[in-house]
Amino acid sequence: MPLVLEGSCHCKAVKYTVESNTPVPYQLCQCSICRKVGGYMGSINLMGNTKTLNIVRGEDKIKQYTAVKSFDENDKPKEMCNSQRNFCSECSSMLWLYDDEWPDWVYPFASSIDKPDPLPNVPKETTLIAIKRDSCPSQVPIPEGAKGYDGYGPGKGIEEWHKTYGAWVD
């Protein structure tokens, strides 16, 4: 049974809801993109059902950023990512990520979720994982109790977790 997530930006200009079968904040992405746009430690993405994304207010305030995957020797974009990061143009809060590769899913940033409070706990069968450490400077720590991986870690991300565990667990 999906859980309705309510999210907003910091200045409250944007508010949205989305249904999620996996509202468990178990994966911290520490890639160069997530650290630069999300903060020092990176960002935690949840998974929502794209068809249920409802922008309650502020659609005109939402902007998209398509990140650069790699740069040339002159810092010019060489390769672009497929995903779009959606953010508030007023306060620049990250809201969600969308990628055409997975059209059924939208990935709200856990930092934008207001309700439920708190989000469900990571099930005992798994642990928090820190991924993409191979593009992360050594001074960025792995949270206590988490496992770090250079790439995406075990499985194929949150989609694989969803297949394994089905839905969220209290």
Automatic annotation (TrEMBL):
Source organism, top-level taxon: Eukaryota
Keyword Nuclease set for record: no
Pfam families the record matches: GFA
Annotated ranges, domain CENP-V/GFA: 5-125
Keywords: Lyase, Metal-binding, Zinc
Family: Belongs to the Gfa family.
Protein name per Swiss-Prot or TrEMBL: CENP-V/GFA domain-containing protein
Record organism: Kwoniella shivajii
